[in-house]
Design goal:
CATH topology: Rossmann fold
Number of domains: 1
Number of strands: 8
Helix content: 25-40%
Structural class: alpha/beta
Largest sheet: 8 strands, mixed
Number of helices: 6
CATH class: Alpha Beta
Length: 235
């Protein structure tokens, strides 16, 4: 399956590139994919056919379109430093608003049937959490979202199904942060926190040392159970 480049216009008229891959002919529910601090990497691009294979049209957006359009970075050494510094140039609230326009852009494409959910990793996981209050999405799913514990005031206003996955070995999201997040969302309807004690940040990133096939499969099973329920009406 090949992807096509789509130009999304944000609320203030800024162009944002996104890559879209269809599930097949006709229209299907959509999934917006939000990248890690490393940008639209090969891993993020691999998520397009990954979701297509489950019958979803997928869109991967360039969250760095304002500060470093088209850039992606390595996972270690200078690559990590450059990624971290680029991430810190973002205005998170502005970026969350930008993603809202990407959701609407995907919804309007003929490849999408109008129902859209969001899946975010790391940086994108933070935005998925924030977007659960702000976006008109069917659901939001966050993998090892970083800095969520700094935005816990948002938790009281979550209005769509939210699923979060955290790693027991993650130095970027320590146990104290996960505990604070769990306490903040306790009692929120259709909000679930899953913990994986034996894995590290990026455990679904196939081809990398942190990848854990068993736990990735378990997390993906939970993710698709939610996506199938909110986008397909599965029970």
């Amino acid at each position: 399956m090949t992807s096509k480049l789509v130009r999304v216009t944000t609320g203030d008229g800024h162009p944002m590139d996104a890559f879209v891959s269809a599930a097949g002919t006709g229209s299907a529910p959509g999934v917006v994919i939000l990248h890690e601090i490393f940008g639209v990497t090969d891993f993020i691009r691999s998520r397009l056919p990954f979701f297509n294979d489950r019958g979803y049209t997928a869109m991967a957006v360039d969250l760095y379109h304002r500060v470093a359009p088209g850039r992606s970075f390595g996972y270690a050494d200078q690559g990590f430093t450059d990624a971290f510094n680029t991430r810190n140039r973002l205005n998170d609230d502005q970026s969350v608003d930008d993603v809202g326009h990407a959701i609407e852009a995907l919804r309007r494409l003929p490849e999408c049937d109008g129902d859209v959910a969001v899946v975010g990793y790391c940086l994108g996981g933070l935005y998925a959490y924030l977007g659960a209050r702000r976006w008109n999405a069917a659901a939001c799913i966050a993998f090892h979202g970083v800095r969520i514990e700094k935005r816990l005031a948002e938790a009281a206003a979550i209005r769509v199904p939210l699923q979060m996955h955290f790693c027991g070995l993650d130095r970027h999201v320590p146990a104290s942060a996960v505990s604070a997040i769990k306490a903040a969302v306790a009692g929120q309807r259709d909000t679930t926190v899953y913990e994986y004690p034996t894995v590290d940040h990026g455990f679904t990133r196939i081809g990398q040392p942190v990848f854990n096939a068993g736990e990735a499969d378990r997390a993906h099973g939970r993710m698709f159970a939610l996506l199938d329920r909110v986008l397909r009406g599965a029970t």
